[in-house]
Amino acid sequence: MQSSLHTCPCQISPSVEMVDAPLSYQDCCQPYHDAFYNDEVDKLDDIKAETAERLMRTRYSAFFLVKPEYIVKTTLPAQQKLLDIKAIESWAKETDWAGLEIVEHTPKLGKRHAQVEFKAYFKSHEEINSGLEEKIQAHHELSAFIKIKNKAAGNSERWYFLDPTVAMTVSQKQPCICGSGEKFKRCCGMYI
């Protein structure tokens, strides 16, 4: 994926016959990844996902290109230390990614939340009639995202993924893990 001639991973979809003008990685997800990996802290507020769908696309491309640090850094900050970066990297490497389909993007759920329903396609190999046959399967998910204000950065806002697989000990009446000041059950608890 070094050249601008290569289609960005998030633009490939086996469920769609043809994408009119697929974007190159350089023109699509690379700027988001580069801002994190090059520690361009001054550019992080300039280069951030404008929507939950855009963040979802950059995360899929990060899995495809095995960029586990990006996956961690775009997950809700309260969950980041609970993620197993080695397991994320291993899963990304072991999966033969085949494309992404955004089924539906619900950009506004309440004040700060959004959802993205997607299918991440991958290739699997099954033994059929004494030979291996390649099949495309889909991981179908409805993901929740939250937009958080960073007070230290002049109240700039950034989207984060709410990971429902992270085991957290939080009660419904505690302050929310996103820092909104609301009770967990009335904020992120509705989506995890």
Walk me through the structure.
This protein is an alpha+beta fold. It has one domain: Roll (Nuclear Transport Factor 2, Chain: A), CATH 3.10.450.50. Helices cover 23% and strands 30% of the residues. The chain contains 6 helices and 4 strands; from the N terminus they run ααααααββββ. Strands 1-2-3-4 form a 4-stranded antiparallel β-sheet, with helices on one face. The chain is globular. The two termini are 34 Å apart.
Task: Describe the sheet with the most strands.
Answer: 4 strands, antiparallel
CATH architecture: Roll
Instruction: Estimate the strand proportion.
Output: 25-35%
Q: Could you give the order of strands across the largest sheet?
A: 1-2-3-4
CA distance, first residue to last residue: 34 Å
Radius of gyration: 18 Å
Give the CATH class: Alpha Beta
Q: Tell how many strands the DSSP assignment holds.
A: 4
Mean pLDDT rating: 86
Number of domains: 1
The number of helical runs is 6
**Spans where pLDDT lies below 50 across 5 or more residues:** 1-5
CATH topology: Nuclear Transport Factor 2, Chain: A
Order of helices and strands: HHHHHHEEEE
Shape: globular
Layout of SSEs?
Elements: H1 30-37, H2 41-44, H3 52-64, H4 68-73, H5 77-80, H6 85-94, E1 96-109, E2 113-128, E3 131-150, E4 156-162
Briefly characterize the structure.
The protein contains six helices and four strands; from the N terminus they run ααααααββββ. The protein has helices spanning 30-37, 41-44, 52-64, 68-73, 77-80, 85-94, and strands spanning 96-109, 113-128, 131-150, 156-162. Strands 1-2-3-4 form a four-stranded antiparallel beta sheet, with helices on one face.
